[in-house]
Specification:
This protein has helices spanning about 20-30, 65, 70-85, 110-125, 130-135, 140-150, 165-175, 195-205, 240-245, 275-290, 305-320, 335, 345-355; strands at about 5-10, 35, 50, 100-105, 155-160, 185-190, 230-240, 255-260, 295-300, 330, 360, 385, 390-395, 400-405. It is α/β, with parallel strands linked by helices. It has 2 domains: about 5-245, Thiolase/Chalcone synthase (Peroxisomal Thiolase, Chain A, domain 1); about 260-405, 3-Layer(aba) Sandwich (Peroxisomal Thiolase, Chain A, domain 1), CATH 3.40.47. A 10-stranded mixed beta sheet has the order 5-4-6-7-1-8-14-13-9-10, with helices on both faces. Strand 9, helix 11 (about 305-320) and strand 10 (about 330) form a beta-alpha-beta unit. The mean pLDDT is about 95.
Amino acid sequence: MNRVVITGLGAVTPIGNNVNDFWKNIKKGTVGIDRITHFDPTGFPSQVAGEVKNFKAKDHMNAKDARRMNDFSQFSVAAALEALEDGHFNLEDTDPYRAGVIIGCGVGSMLEIEENAYRLRDKGPTKIKPLMVPRLISNMSSGNVSIQTGFKGKCISLTSACASGTHAIGEAFRSLKYGESDVMLAGGTEAAISPTGVAGFSGISALSTTEDPLAASIPFDKNRNGFVIGEGAGILLMETLDHALARGAKIYAELVGYGATADAYHITSPLEDGSGAAKAMTLALDEAHLTPESVDYLNAHGTSTVYNDLYETAAIKKAFGPAAYTLKINSTKSMIGHLLGAAGGVEMVVCVKSIEEDFIHQTVGVKEQDPACDLNYMIEGSESTKVSVAMSDSLGFGGHNAALVIQKYCD
């Protein structure tokens, strides 16, 4: 079996449209949440979001191609091209049929459905946009990346709600580990800040109703009342170690473990005892041949919903045992909101940068930690500290659980 390494990073986020800007703002504790501008949110229970700002598709692709994509595809293409550039990757040196794409996306484009539904109602069926379907279906995140990069190997889009990005990276890991591919672009993308998206999540009481952008996404805070919807993309360039070494690539980190389970319990709530998520974490550690004590840092799902944070705390305790109380844990969502299918991809970029720079960011905005969430959630501030092993976990509606483990690369 092959060792698998990460050699390139790409990101489009509410606090930076590339990895460099994103990471600088992460280190500063910048909050990218504000009142919704994509539409007038007056009258909506939730009125804040983590929107991508000043993104210009023409900076990443030609205008004709951009028009054929909705935002979620544009974000994934921009992040994938950045990952390739960051990794100094040239497809001419690789069999294109051994270079694949797996990108997770939770919902595709709700906005495209909305706009065309109004056209259908008001103008009739002949006035639907000709490209409605290829602009809205979630698999086009992977399809468009394949088209733009020339990658001709396995090309899949995974949909497992908020675990989509993490599952995509994990399945790409499997493809590389077992020799099916030499190179993969993997991660997640999402652009669901639309009237239907916000109203729909509000309808199940999932979104924060706090109007103060700095107090809306506060994971593990006693006064949290829901997540803040966000958008963006996070993509990794992943290779077998032999392939990366053969081309002299810079290696950021090694991906060593992946776990995936289902709660088989409820359409929106995780298991109360956290056993499903805990098992995913344990499986990832087992594959990595690591003990709970060897993990320095966990990037938690940390959505800022009442039950997720409580049950995730239970899951961490179940998976890590006594080591849970010394583990450093944070939630990137405190700064950018919940990017749904993109969350796992962006949060893995954070894990990689944390290992590269030995830095763990603060969980921002928490004023009063929930006594029931009694672990070290990095509430007091960021910390420069050795990070040799990091884990990221994701939980999705429907009971989807996923966890990834990466470590510093050693020969």
